[in-house]
Design a protein that fits this description.
With 216 residues, the chain is an alpha+beta fold. The chain has 6 helices and 7 strands; from the N terminus they run E-H-H-H-E-E-H-E-H-E-H-E-E. Strands 1-2-3-4-5-7-6 form a 7-stranded mixed beta sheet, sandwiched between helices. The longest helix is centred in the middle third of the chain and has 23 residues.
Amino acid sequence: MSLVIRPAQESDLDCMTDICTEAFPLDPQWNYRFPYRLQFPKDHYEYTRMYYADALADSTSHKVMVAKMEDLPGSVKSRVIALSLWRMPGVADLPNPQKYASRRDASPSRVKAFMDSRNETKRKCFDQKYGDYYLNLVQLVTRPFFARQGAATKLLQWGMELARSNSWPIVLFAGPVGLPLYKKLGFEEVGVLHVERTPSTPALDYPAMVWEASIT
């Protein structure tokens, strides 16, 4: 079996959405923001798909790369198994599908609490040092069945090569699944995205991390 890294295509949208909805429930922030996803699975799937469709449509400001595993045994000879979403320097975040009032899988108050903390930590840890001149890894996610087979590493290395060739730092917020990989490849913690505990939800802590070619 072999891995191929390539730009995502519109034909990958369903597979990308499947990867996300399978893998992100392993990340505490996903369950925090979308506590009703099992109650409203159609909303969860459709709005997640919409998010990736927006990213693909905005290809000058966001890059979506996928890892495709080829030479698989059985009738399915190849499959997209992982993806990475990158925000290019100097551009705004994607329009967030959480803004749609009809979305029933999300908790608006939890989404706001998470995004407020994320934006403040981003300002303190990234923007004050770099302005908006950095490459932002927004998502790196692998289908759970294919975890630990090198797909996330190759996708991350793709971004590191792009950043190195343009003298860009890379910034990200690390979830518990990806944190060991980021540390292994030389990312440094510069702060923490913290969401306070409430009577019904645990506290959340996500390291803010930076990679610069000059420090590795």
